[in-house]
Amino acid sequence: MTYSVQFAFIFACIAYASAGILLEHAPACPEQYGVQAYAHPELCDQFFLCTNGTLTVETCENGLLFDGKGAVHNHCNYHWAVNCGTRKADLIPLSTPGCEFQFGVYPDSDECSTSYVKCAFGIPEQEPCSPGLAYDDRIHGCNWPDLLIPFCNPEAVVGFKCPTKVPANTQAARFWPFPRFPVPGDCHRLITCVEGHPRLISCGEDKLFDDQNLTCEEPEAVAHCGGGRA
Predict the structure, then answer these.
(1) In the predicted model, what is the mean pLDDT of the chain?
(2) C-alpha span between 2 and 207 (Å, rounded)
(3) How many CA atoms lie less than 13 Å away from 203 in the CB half-sphere?
């Protein structure tokens, strides 16, 4: 489908809606199979939805807006992640205990926290950050704790204090100024120091950390980790 056809369809829908004509009499969806969502050219909290050729006008839930990329709920995204441009949006909160908007992500504490609150339909649920991370309200997600100083103490979050010096004849010194260290009993992660502060790094699902050469390797190369069993 070309952009010209898409835009013609959208503006035809606007013309019909403005004239008070039912959408069932509006132009047919550009595509007759599958699900397609199109931005409303005037409203950021509404969009046109075609489901196997059936056209509906949808409204994003409170706290969400449409950008064509959102997958939080019904093709919509968190309002702080959407650039509406000139489109107007209703951002009046419909608050419930623990949730400013019906959909949103919020800190669960006024202090450094390794979890956060995720709201859906006004119901708050506590969600954990990945190990070694802390919630950053500036990005509405989890972040390295050394990027949250002085709000967060990286040593307390990671559970490790970086040494001020690393002996030259050690494996850790090979990675200076970002020396690496193993995590006792954990074959899937390592600790690296960034400007004197620890970060807990994951090798990824298909790698294991070799505490001898301080690198992530294929499981079969790390025999003491049980070939993939941490």
Answers:
(1) 86
(2) 44
(3) 25
